[in-house]
Amino acid sequence: MVFGFGEDKADLVLEKTSFSAGEIIRGRLVLNISKPKKGRSVRVVLFGQKTQTEWRYDFSSKHSKPHTAVTKIYEFEIELDKEKEYSGNYAYDFEIAVPQSADARKQFESKIENTLQQYDNTPVGGIFRAAAGIGKAAMHPPRTDWFLEGKLDVPGGFDVSKKVQIQILQT
Questions:
Q1: By CB neighbour count within 10 A (0-12 exposed, 13-18 middle, 19+ buried), where does 37 fall?
Q2: Which sign does the torsion angle of CA 95, 101, 105, 107 carry?
Q3: What is the helix (H) or strand (E) element at residue 10, kind and residue range?
Q4: pTM of the entire structure?
Q5: What angle do CA 5, 148, 160 make, to 5 degrees?
Q6: CA separation for the pair 139, 142 (Å, rounded)
Q7: d(CA 143, CA 103)
Q8: Which of 8, 26, 62, 94 yields a CA-CA distance of 20 to 30 A from 124?
Q9: What is the pLDDT of residues 112-147, one digit of tens each?
Q10: Rg value, the chain, Cα
Q11: What DSSP designation does 168 have?
Q12: Pairing between β-strand 160-169 and β-strand 18-20 as defined by DSSP bridges
């Protein structure tokens, strides 16, 4: 092993990988620690991230170019074990609830609509609505990806972790 990589292992075992809003995710985090290692904590994190692509005009090249931004939209963490020295095999069962509202596209569109409503009865309201229509056409609807990550947090070292992508179905 080069520089000790690959000696320790984490695995996330889930009952399934597709969930509905409000459903409970049940699983097990399994850690195999080959040599004694001081750990800050063992945690499981459910997080969602929104990927939004929009076209921006680049004045230097005089062309539009896509710009992609990734934003964390949700994060919930549970601690499964405290600070101590870890060595050997560990298994932690956990349950995490999927958020009730997990649809980033609806949240994105309602945010734009709420902003526009503030200007509807003003002289510039029509201009903002027209600009928003053009802007929405130039932006792709956001894509939301959901992940579950289990890890042993190692201060000053490499965490022992496993991340899996899950699907949250929109109802």
A1: middle
A2: negative
A3: strand 9-14
A4: 0.71
A5: 20
A6: 8
A7: 9
A8: 62
A9: 566 656 666 666 556 655 555 545 444 567 788 999
A10: 22
A11: E
A12: parallel
